[in-house]
Amino acid sequence: MAKVAIRQRGKNEVEKLLQSVKEPERRLKELRHSFDEKAAQSVADLIRKNNIQIVDFKFNDLPGLWQHFSIPASELTEYDDLVTSIWVDGIGFDGSSIRGFQQIQESDMLLLPDPSTAIVDPVCQIPTVSIICDIYDPVSREPYTRDPRYIARKAEAYLKKTGIATDVYFGPECEFFIFDDIRFDTTENSSYYFLDSNEGDWNTGRDEKPNLGYKPRYKEGYFPVPPHDQLQDIRSEIILTMIKSGIPIEVHHHEVATAGQCEIDMKFNKLTTMADRVLLYKYIVKNVARKHNKTATFMPKPIFKDNGSGMHCHQSLWDGDKPLFYDKNGYALISQLCKWYIGGLLKHAHSILAFAAPTTNSYRRLVPGYEAPVNLVYSARNRSAAVRIPMYTDQPKAKRLEFRPPDPSCNPYLAFSAMLMAGLDGIRNKIDPGKPVDKNIYELSPEEAAGIKTVPRSLDEALNALEKDHDFLLEGGVFTKDVIDTWIEYKRTVEIDGVRLRPHPYEFYLYYDI
Description:
The chain is an alpha+beta fold. The protein folds into two domains: 28-143, Glutamine synthetase, N-terminal domain (Ubiquitin-like (UB roll), Roll), CATH 3.10.20; 167-511, 2-Layer Sandwich (Creatine Kinase, Chain A, domain 2), CATH 3.30.590. 37% of the residues lie in helices and 20% in strands. It contains 15 helices and 18 strands. Strands 7, 10, 11, 12, 13, 14, 15, 16, 17 and 18 form a ten-stranded mixed sheet that branches. Strands 1, 2, 3, 4, 5 and 6 form a six-stranded mixed sheet that branches. A hairpin with a 7-residue loop joins strand 5 (119-120) and strand 6. It starts with a helix and ends with a helix.
């Protein structure tokens, strides 16, 4: 019997080995079978029509920054084995050199271009087509589990699988600053930053030969016309570039803070598409600003004592053409399904913000007094609540919620996916968000305010929450434990410890004379 068992075990191991060899072959055949020749041909047509000379491949690292490399356009204009290989077999790159990806002993990775994302690059002077890529493992031929875009696509697939809805739509309001100068450095014996803006209220007395005034006062930058708003034409150029690049734009304006705070709002779209557009949005903003010898930042809180930059996320669920968040008899015209979704957002807010407000600087914005949505309640119209129900219209298709704590330093693929998964958990478990709070929460009495939960006070608190509360993210295999562990480790060792170990300039003011 022992010999039979050993023989059977050996047979099983051989079968596993053969299967491990066959699996990548099967995946490669699937990729070849799913190859959309028509979509690839449309890219070739785009190249020829616009006399494109370069094709640029972009992909996302784990923290949320676009990476890229380029090839001659001739590589994608003829249908031969080489072209098919690029679309199906992918292009290799060193994954160990990308933040949050592979270790050096497993560095080889593949990029597979998504032809549906091809556009004429709005920044490059040499005629260039830009294509967003998905990341694959070269051995298994499976999508790479740490690819943020893959996580977003899995989140959308999981939504459909639940039967709750067919689609989720996101409409983020990205805020940012455009400065005229930025300098910063940290060494063993010094640390400083210095930023400047021609709009900055601190420059009312500067000798500008001549100083023409019209600098928005602190917290009074919302909606003034030129000459107070000195960035009107630059923002207009930015949105026209965005529209030309395929991003529908609803509005642009100056924001509350002095010194060039801006907002440009995109028309809502499905999760992965919108995350693609957020990265393209940031790419265009930064490069158009640079073209005008200015610099743009999506850092949440670059200026002391003025409003920070958020990314309020409007979101709604749909079943085909039917909006699921509307109920003509509901509070603020929202459905019970929407309330449960809100319940999930509020319950899991601390762990969501580990992805949606993911920097140490994020929590310099999330403090009371600067329109910061620190209170974990919901309300109609109330901007002091973490979840606001916009009331501009009573149209069913416009009914949505706005989750206000996120900021634009996030990786949108991960942040949007985390919000969706929290909302779905709220629906599946019928989580009651409690009663709405329609008062200015900042003006509540201490007794009233004591019962209201707030967002984390630091990135460390958010990561601790994510460590304890992440099962809802693992549903359907959307996030993996590896992704969560890698995220927590990276944020703690590189960012939290990096800030914690360095003396802060203000500490010298406080303590030097002790």
